[in-house]
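Wed. Picked up where I left off yesterday with Lipoprotein. The coffee machine is broken again, so keeping this brief.
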Amino acid sequence: MKYKKMFLSLSLCGSLLLVACQKNDQKVSANESGQKQDVTQHNVAPKKDNKTLMLEAIKKSNKELLGGTCKIVSDVDDDSLIIGDLNHDSKADFLYGYAKVWECDAQVPAYEYAVFLQNKDGSYRLASIFAAGMQDHLDRVEFNRIENNIIKGVIPYSEEKVQYIYKNKSLEEIEDPNNKTIIQLGKQMYSNSSPFFGELDRMSYVADEVECGGFFPDDQAEKSTTIDHYDLRIANDQMVVMGVFGLTAKDQVQVMGKTVTSATTLSQVKQLFKTGYSLDESKNSTDTIGAASEDAAKLKYDVMLSINTKDMDDAYLFYFKNNQLIAVKYFIPC
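Structure written out below (tokens, as returned):
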């Protein structure tokens, strides 16, 4: 009986020891499993937020943004990033606005906006670069937000509101069809009161000297250039529009007090100038329209109408294609 009780005690102790060992083994196994899981979780890179991806894209595109200039002089911050859908895919694209100097000792920066589109994996790619203008240019553009795929901004000098859209891999201005540009052909005016006041400060860089057929007196240095589809002359603080090549629906051209548009026909022009003017109609003998400045647009036409008065050598030339006015210019012979 004594030995039987001892045997039972030993068996019970053995069983308890076995259970304890099994539990301990399970705990060790669980700990090892947890450690392995922790290691696995630490090896998975955390998902990057959009701001981080944007900064990486800007840094990666630094060479393209510089474009051979000296350096970018602005910092990347929240004010320089304009976020919104640009290409109708409901993704968070963005514009990066920055300033850079062409020469390292330059004082006037140029402003640009880089267009970044978001890829399917969340990363970004540089799509295009928009030149917003030099700091001292009157037509410099400043964007502030993106709404319904439209980029909204302002021209700081004139406080004129502007709208752009990303199209054909670039930013294109959305023009208000109700806005009309009134052009007084061959009439001298002050540069700051002309429709081109925002562009005229560029002339010192691109304009050509006029040697023949000048509008201004010979003692004034006259330059010629083309802005958009307008042929211009400038001397000191004065300017004159010499031609409009490729009339658009917004152009209203005033010629000797008469107004013509892109919808004006040949017979209508003849009617406007039937009294007191000399009219000379000719068929096209060349393929293109000549212009005072080399950069002026060249257009094909089929009829030209020359109008002047008996006491003037100068002439107003009207060019038609399929009976629609496509160009008009003020011609001064050498």
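Quick read: DSSP finds five helices and 21 strands in the chain.
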